[in-house]
Design a protein that fits this description.
The protein is of the alpha+beta class. It is built from 3 helices and 8 strands. It is elongated, with a radius of gyration of 25 Å. The protein starts with a helix and ends in a 5-residue tail after the last strand.
Length: 164
């Protein structure tokens, strides 16, 4: 009888161990929730400080070097077109996997910085400093199971001493 109880206990322990070692379906779905996110960041850089919209008097800032920085880490770089527009798209395989949606939404978490000298666009702009804009959340959509987060660069302000 003792050997039967020992055998049953051994079988039960093996079954429990196998059950505990097997991954659950929920765990498999939550391996990396960031991996299903795509972030689009767009905006227009103008040759004037604190102007939001190209319909105003300011001219665009063409061929300006633009960086997306999150937590003081440069995530992406691009150049504006002839109309001063830029677009940055970061997908699941980009460096952004280290970041979260909260990095974009929290104050100062992510921002767009113009690294080209301001005098190249407008000689009246101060020489030291960079144009910097925080991000504003735009439209969210789901496309083929991918979360697409759209962000718009807000008003560009002059900031000194970014340490670029």
């Amino acid at each position: 009888m003792a050997s039967l109880n020992s055998a049953l206990l051994l079988v039960l322990l093996v079954a429990i161990s196998a059950f505990m070692a097997a991954p659950s379906g929920v765990e498999a779905q939550l391996v990396n929730p960031i991996a299903n996110n795509v972030f689009n960041i767009g905006g227009t850089v103008l040759c004037q400080i604190n102007q939001t919209f190209p319909g105003g008097v300011a001219s665009p800032f063409p061929q300006a070097a633009v960086e997306l920085r999150c937590r003081n880490f440069t995530v992406a770089r691009t150049t504006t077109d002839e109309s001063g527009r830029f677009n940055i798209t970061l997908g699941p395989v980009d460096q952004l996997t280290q970041l979260s949606i909260q990095d974009f939404l929290q104050l100062g978490g992510c921002r767009v910085i113009v690294t080209t000298l301001l005098a190249q666009c407008n000689a009246n702009l101060p020489v030291p400093g960079n144009l910097v804009a925080n991000l504003t959340a735009g439209i969210f959509s789901i496309v083929n199971g991918i979360n697409v987060f759209n962000f718009i660069a807000g008003v560009f302000s002059l900031v000194n001493n970014l340490g670029l």
